[in-house]
Amino acid sequence: MATPLRIALAGLGTVGAGVIRLLEANGALIERRAGRPIQITAVSARDRTKDRGVDLSPYAWEDDMTAMAARDDVDVVVELVGGSDGPALTLARNTLQSGKSLVTANKAMIAHHGLSLAQSAEAQGVALKYEAAVAGGIPVVKGMREGAAANVIERIYGILNGTCNYVLSTMEDTGRDFDDVLKEAQDLGYAEADPGFDIDGVDAAHKLSILASIAFGTRLDFQAVDMIGITRVRAADIAQAASLGYVIRLIGMADVDHDDEGARLLQRVQPYLVPLDHPLAAVDGPTNAVVAEGNFVGRLLFQGAGAGDGPTASAVMADIIDIARGELGAPFSIPVAELEEMPRADAGHRISRTYLRFIVADRPGVLAEITAAMRDAGVSIESLIQKGEPANGDDVLVAIVTHEAPEHCITEALKLLEGSASITEPPLVMRLLGS
Amino acid sequence: MATPLRIALAGLGTVGAGVIRLLEANGALIERRAGRPIQITAVSARDRTKDRGVDLSPYAWEDDMTAMAARDDVDVVVELVGGSDGPALTLARNTLQSGKSLVTANKAMIAHHGLSLAQSAEAQGVALKYEAAVAGGIPVVKGMREGAAANVIERIYGILNGTCNYVLSTMEDTGRDFDDVLKEAQDLGYAEADPGFDIDGVDAAHKLSILASIAFGTRLDFQAVDMIGITRVRAADIAQAASLGYVIRLIGMADVDHDDEGARLLQRVQPYLVPLDHPLAAVDGPTNAVVAEGNFVGRLLFQGAGAGDGPTASAVMADIIDIARGELGAPFSIPVAELEEMPRADAGHRISRTYLRFIVADRPGVLAEITAAMRDAGVSIESLIQKGEPANGDDVLVAIVTHEAPEHCITEALKLLEGSASITEPPLVMRLLGS
């Protein structure tokens, strides 16, 4: 019989238990595909006594998970603890330094420390794999690292956070407002009690920065991601978007500017208006989807479940199978030392149609003030809707869609309106995604 | 410098020239991702003098392409000649037997001879790779072989032929009839002068049989694919489908029946009615898309360009990069000797809603005859539309959608109607895809 690949599992939450269930259910098939048995030898979690619905008795128990890196009976450590630093990072470092491979679902840790971990893996000739860290069960890390490897990637973007997509698509389906839908999502377990990581765009930004590094061959740079979350999107915005033939989706997008000063990387997470005929418009609920545009392959779309124990366990196990098959290549497709350090692009010259929503006092001259600012900034208005009914106390909503305009002109128009007594809350700005 | 991987290219049609252009355009990037240079050393095609828009002078020329298998300066032969047998197969066999890896875009050859070629590759410890043979640029072979490898696949289906999808979606957009749109597709180069391979479903069946083997771990069995093409789909069928909230797509679908007698494989290529809220309904033009449903990952969707020189060259080069990285694993995910021989399933007990379209003489009693046959076969009618205007000479069209019924009941109803003087051409039967 072929030598088993021996696994230690750190973290026995829903995903960790899911990995055990997956191996129980599909173990024989996995062995045939991997060419050798995959055996869990040791596990570790905070509470040994908790009932997780799986039998832990076959496995050695470690109270201190970082000790798993030193075990002789372990080839691969699977880190499912979470957190960008702390014990997860210590375990990851120890594992790689001791010449074992690491598989992780930890997007925060990869976004913050992926390069140093990858260097450690490369130095030791072991694998660092993190398919489950991006878009749950969708094999998009593999798709970019290998499937699209022959291409210069021109743009990569997608729906990377299931919680936000659930909230936005539920608002769309029900007409209900943000706070209401978020609360329901929390009650249903789709959103965390502290939802900031999701709704402020941090989680999507983690994933985007990882994808961008693989796609563009650049040094992973999470700090350079511009983030705007979805907390300020109202039911009225979704209704306005619908009347224009758009839905609103939180999208992470990255591409590269080339000009005389060289290449610059733009990474951002923002709510966009997505036209109904775009494949991302049909992505509802907690589903994730990633679009990659390559110079030879054209547009690729990868779609599937962005979270959940089953899909995440599937991605974790795909990484383990790769390792069992001997596929241990560079974690970011190109060795870390060869990744390009690319400065952050300024988005000011980017041209797009833009949705601007104002909440204004319902009094004479407000529209004149807004439209004058747009004119003075050189922004041409395609459509303007002022809703009759009050949107906030006595205040009313004004929604504008501009013709194509550089972003710096939009910024300038908003600057001209700063301090206006008529505008009662900061305007909401969302770009329209092209088809 | 790392040792170059040396490539011989057999076939310099649009895809072969595309591979050369891809390497010219993206060679430096590909070298970084592959970890070593990819060098074309020799090329072969029928006509040496033809202008292909690429410079062939750097490469050795072979008049006899099968000779490339014996060259000392070649590590990988890329077969882009086509045809299930003949010189392509000879080259493939010689290449593998001489211990070189083979990359091919040849779906017919893989569908007919994939297993024997894979055995030869396994025996020699070299790679047989064929990403470009299925769904053009979409990395779905990799997605199934590796990305979804931890799953029992419950069903795999998709839009696998761009020509058919172009014809059907153009009929849908324009209301024009089949012959008219096919002719236009031929004029535009989207369909072959002899379109049978595409429109009769053979090409989709080649691809489906390959995907099914990887997905289910079964011996590739192209002969067992049931095929119904799109030649009998009329504009009126598309209009009827639209009125019900469906579009018509040619879909290849495979799944496994489990009963007391063991597992049986159902593979078929048929036009289906696809509900508008299904991701495949939005797949227009020559785009391909594959859905795989796994027991842990849930539903995965892979979508992209199904043909064309750029996308196909991208898939070919992804295989070459894999080989350069040392990824040479079993061509069908599991070694050929371990693939299961699975008998063909009988579809009779499958339950679905079904669309039946009759062309009938416009005279009294026709509807009574049809509806009586349905009743006698135990098929319940959900909706029935008889169009007033003539569909064919004086004959008129009757379209029926049934409630869920086993396929053998539908077959029985049609048998009862066989030889009816009122029904002037064989009925068209299409199943409705679930959401």
Overview of this protein structure:
Chains A, B: NADPH binds at residue 107. Two copies of one chain form a homodimer. Chain A folds into three domains: 5-133, Rossmann fold (3-Layer(aba) Sandwich); 140-307 and 328-338, Dihydrodipicolinate Reductase, domain 2, CATH 3.30.360.10; 351-432, ACT domain (Alpha-Beta Plaits, 2-Layer Sandwich), CATH 3.30.70. Helix content of chain A is 34%, strand content 27%. Chain A is built from twelve helices and 18 strands. In chain A, the strands form three sheets. In chain A, strands 7, 8, 9, 10, 11, 12, 14, 15, 16 and 18 form a ten-stranded mixed sheet that branches. In chain A, helix 1 (14-34) runs parallel beside helix 10 (309-324) and helix 3 (107-124) packs parallel to helix 8 (202-216). The longest helix of chain A has 21 residues, at 14-34. Chain A is elongated and about 80 Å long. At the A-B interface, helix 1, helix 4, strand 12 and helix 10 of A face helix 1, helix 4, strand 12 and helix 10 of B.
Characteristics of this structure?
alpha/beta, 3 domains, 34% helix, Alpha-Beta Plaits, 435 residues, Dihydrodipicolinate Reductase, domain 2, Rossmann fold, 12 helices, six-stranded parallel β-sheet, ten-stranded mixed β-sheet, homodimer
Total domains of chain A, how many? 3
How many strands appear in the DSSP assignment of chain A?
A: 18
Give unreliable regions of chain A as ranges: none
Structural class of chain A: alpha/beta
Helical content of chain A stands at 25-40%
* Spatial extent as radius of gyration of chain A: 24 Å
- Kindly report the oligomeric state of this protein: homodimer
Overall pLDDT of chain A: 95
Instruction: Please describe the biggest sheet of chain A, giving its number of strands, its sense, and whether it closes into a barrel.
Output: 10 strands, mixed
Q: Provide the CATH topology of the largest domain in chain A.
A: Dihydrodipicolinate Reductase, domain 2
State the end-to-end CA separation of chain A.
53 Å
Going by CATH, the homologous superfamily of the largest domain in chain A would be Dihydrodipicolinate Reductase, domain 2
CATH architecture of the largest domain in chain A: 2-Layer Sandwich
**Order of helical and strand elements of chain A:** EHEEEHEHEHEHHHHEHEEEEHEEHEEEHE
Biggest protein-protein interface?
A-B, 60 and 60 residues
The gross shape of chain A turns out to be: elongated
- Helical stretch tally of chain A: 12
